[in-house]
Design goal:
Mean pLDDT: 90
Order of helices and strands: HEEEEHEEEEEEEEEEHEEEE
Structural class: mainly beta
CATH topology: Beta-galactosidase, Chain A, domain 5
CATH architecture: Distorted Sandwich
Low-confidence stretches: 1-12
Largest sheet: 8 strands, antiparallel
Distance between the termini: 45 Å
CATH class: Mainly Beta
Number of strands: 18
Strand content: 35-45%
Strand order of the largest sheet: 8-9-10-11-18-15-14-13
């Protein structure tokens, strides 16, 4: 009898451990069923970046944002709902939604490269360079509390030069911002004449809503209506009769930034950069409708 009771206690203990082990707070994966997306999330928000199968649609190397209602992991359920059930993830069914429009921009914290403008009448202006879809992906670390992956871009056009971009992104439980580590290298021996400013950026949609810059720490912040995209607004209105889905807050921090301002419709935090160096910046987002 004692042996039976002991066996039951051991079994229950193992079951409890297994139950605890399958409750990750951070998650990510390559998504071949949606044109090679690479998506990830923690408790506060979900993100994705665009892969080679989407290249005919002229995507960017920017970051897309999905809003989450709670800490529950939603990436797989969002894709399943959209591509299997035919229920668009642009509509909030109670868990959150994809309502942030990226297009060919840096999106919600993507890489921004600036070079000085050639306009002699405005010598202090800059030209913005945005890349396309990634070419390769690699998962470097995956635990219940941490997800690290790397994306490689072979053809980032900057001032007439083709650069290679390697970006390593770390998402951790309990952190409002992702960490991005970027290395740019030249595909040829020809030097780039223009000096580069590199860092993170936030694309400002139709109108500039509330924004804030703190140059001393290289920090920029932007807040907008969650349904600034007219298509998402219409879809949500058709479903639930309301165009109100709260507010989105987005932020970027680039340590050592020398420029924190609006450039070509992007709120950027960038600093001087030499090819081959590793530049680190941070980006993240929250939603006013999020609740624990």
């Amino acid at each position: 009898m004692k042996k039976i009771l002991f066996s039951i206690i051991v079994l229950l203990s193992l079951m409890a451990c297994q139950k605890e082990a399958v409750q990750p707070k951070v998650y990510g994966r390559y998504v071949p069923e949606r044109k090679d997306d690479f998506a990830w999330e923690n408790e506060y928000a979900a993100f994705r970046m665009y892969g080679p199968a989407l290249r005919p649609e002229n995507p960017s190397n920017g970051v897309d944002l999905w809003l989450k209602k709670s800490p529950e992991l939603v990436v797989d359920s969002f894709y399943y709902r959209e591509h299997v059930l035919g229920l668009p993830y642009h509509i909030n069914y109670g868990k959150g939604l994809d309502c942030y429009k990226v297009g060919h921009t840096c999106g919600a914290g993507g890489l921004v490269v600036l070079t000085p403008s050639n306009d002699i009448q405005q010598p202090q202006t800059y030209q913005t360079w945005i890349g396309g879809a990634y070419d390769r992906w690699e998962i470097l670390e995956q635990t219940p509390d941490k997800f690290v992956f790397r994306l490689e871009y072979d053809s980032l056009l900057v001032a007439g030069h083709i650069l290679h971009e390697s970006i390593t992104i770390t998402a951790e439980a309990g952190q409002l911002q992702n960490k991005a580590e970027v290395v740019l290298t030249a595909n040829s021996q020809e030097p780039i004449a223009n000096s580069l400013l590199v860092g993170g950026g936030i694309y400002l949609h139709d109108t500039v809503d509330y924004h804030l810059t703190i140059p001393e720490v290289g920090y920029v912040f932007y807040e907008e209506d969650a349904l600034s995209d007219k298509t998402a607004a219409r879809m949500n209105y058709d479903y639930n009769g309301s165009t109100s889905q709260g507010r989105i807050q987005l932020s970027v921090k680039t340590p050592g930034a020398t420029l924190t301002d609006i450039v070509d419709g992007n709120l950027v935090a960038v600093r001087p950069y030499e090819l081959g160096d590793t530049l680190t910046y941070y980006f993240g987002a929250t939603w006013s409708e999020w609740s624990e």
